[in-house]
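This section describes the prediction task in plain terms. A model, or a person checking by hand, is given the sequence of a single protein chain and must write out its three-dimensional structure as a string of tokens. No templates, partner chains or ligands are provided. The sample shown here is typical of the held-out split.
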Amino acid sequence: MTGFYRSQIRLSRYRRTSHTSHYLLGISIGFVLLIIGVSLFTISCDSSVDPPPPQDPCQGFTGNVSGELALPYYTEILYTVEGIIRDHYDDSPVPNVSVSIDWIDSAVVVTSDSYGYFYIPGPICPGEYEIVFTAPGFAVQTISAYAPSLDELKGDIDVSPSGSILYPLELDVEIYGLTGSVSGVILDAWWELLICPDGSVIIPPVMGAEVELKFRGQDHLGQENVTLVPDLYWVMSNVEGYFAFVDLPLTDSASLTVPPFVAGDSSYGGCQIVVPVPSAGLVLVPGMDTVFQVAYQYFGYDSSGFLEVSGWLAWNYVNSTYLTGIWRISNAGGMDTTFHMVDSGRLAGIHEDGHIFIDLNPGFADANTLLSGTVSEQSISGTWQTVGFIGVLDSGSFIAVRK
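The expected answer:
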């Protein structure tokens, strides 16, 4: 009996020991499974935040134009466009200018305010854009604007580690009022002059000549990336050789061209020159690359007041004082009784304080005719002298009437 009881006690102890072992084993297995689960969860979470493969955030962008664009995984630069629009003539701000830019297959259009300020919110991607400015009374103007990429600007701006940078593309814009004009006359200066019965000379005009006027880039607008629409104008000279352009952009200058042409039985060479805008009273001579600012009908008289020669003078002012040009003078009535220079040539002179001195044979002291006169609004009157090595050879008076 006693032995049986002890056996029961040993068995009971053994059984209790066996249950305890099973319990500890279960806890160990559970702990291992917990570690494995946490590891799998961590791996799963890590894989869920891998970024998508790189792509161009601007390619195919169809978002709004409010200026906000979320790009959480990339560093990219985007642009707004803003600036002040001023009148080229007086530098005053211009309100109510329509500003448009072609972007994502459509045009974004804004209007300048009372201070001439305009703002295009974008966001505009890097690249080259044509921005068009339109306003009543002004020439339509296109500006080529370039928005550099982020790589081109690195080192010049601070960049964030992710997302996009909204950067202002600032423009200073000058537009041109349509109040300019250019006019003048085309003369057949190198053919025979028309001699009237009174001995005076008429310079034959050229009818039917095409005259072109161009406004292009840096030379005429001061800005290489600016284009006016239109930037080319043309007219034909009338029966009196007169031509006129009106309602032109009021720029600093324009290129005036007469291409080579045929009129009647005569062939003419072309000429080209840069002229200020506005300009009036220009004198064009086909075959010469010069447009003259002034031209005068010239009449030369001997010391007794008899008309000896007639013709024309034309020149440009090099500055406020000095002038250079050309002349053509013939004997009046075909008579050859004067020492006054005839035929044609170059001239040079000085115009100062209402007085003018003109040398018809610059650089030569012999066989040279010198003019000295007083300038009024439409004419010049004075005296002429033909000089040689021995002194004054002949003299008289002259009057020149502005064409």
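For orientation: Residues 2-48 form the longest helix (47 residues).
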